[in-house]
Amino acid sequence: MPDTPDLPIARTIADLRQTVSGWRRQGFTVGFVPTMGALHDGHLTLVREAGQRADRVVASVFVNPTQFAAHEDLGAYPRQQARDAELLAGAGCALMYAPSVEEMYPADATTTVSVGAPAEGLEGAFRPQMFGGVALVVAKLLNQVQPDVALFGEKDFQQLIVIRRMVRDLDIPVEIVGLPTIRDGHGLALSSRNAYLSPDELEVARRLNGVLAQAGVRAAGGSPLPAIEDGAREALLRAGFSHVDYVAVRRADDLAAFEGGTVDGPARILAAAWLGKTRLIDNMAV
Q1: Which end of the chain is more exposed for a tag (fewer CB within 10 A), N or C?
Q2: Contact criterion met (CB below 8 Å) for 210 and 236
Q3: pLDDT computed for residue 2 by the predictor
Q4: Which residues are catalytic?
Q5: Distances in whole angstroms, Cα of residue 199 to Cα of each of 16, 26, 107, 202, 249
Q6: Matching CATH number, 192-285, of 3.30.1240.10, 3.90.76.10, 1.10.10.10, 3.30.1300.10
């Protein structure tokens, strides 16, 4: 099992399981944080919180090809495993799991995972391949690590809802914990894709949070949701975004639409918008 001076790295399922089973024999609990690498403080916050909830923490670094469409940025997605290992060690991670694509997806694998309603609409409408890929890789990772608790960020809120439903429906014995989105000093949600933004685009991107906050206040006040969503889309375009895929106010527990046209319970406002070739997503509680 090759490693860095500070952090062991498992690259096969066998090595991963050998380490985790050793911890189990010592009576340790296990926390897990799945990532696609290019780590930032949002990821490291999850690792540190996992360390508060479990005795040992595994973090995976795997750019998952099954959640990318042919036209998306799989090849360009930032990869920096050596730096990721340093950051994970500093955050208290006990093991980095960095399998190859071949280790995760044998050539003759045929199984897929479809979660249904929580994966439909919003991101599922614009990236129809995404949640099947996410559900498959997370199901595999949870089976490989077999953690007591797994932590995810709320920035990918629909993904969190999909994973919770999958874990419930498949009786996977793990606690799923979602942590609030980590933002920079201007309110922009931290994301590995922020590295793609030019200085001018970064200035525009930092307006996304404010537009959603204003729309959320209107939604909480009982304004009609179609008008709120349309107004937020127009505000994002005026702010400098080149295109808006969606702005939507949905029920917080399952992302279903509010049938009456106004908020009548816990809600979430979600958005996806483009700056040049970079697609940003964000959300917040209403």
Answers
A1: N
A2: no
A3: 47
A4: 43
A5: 40, 50, 42, 5, 30
A6: 3.30.1300.10
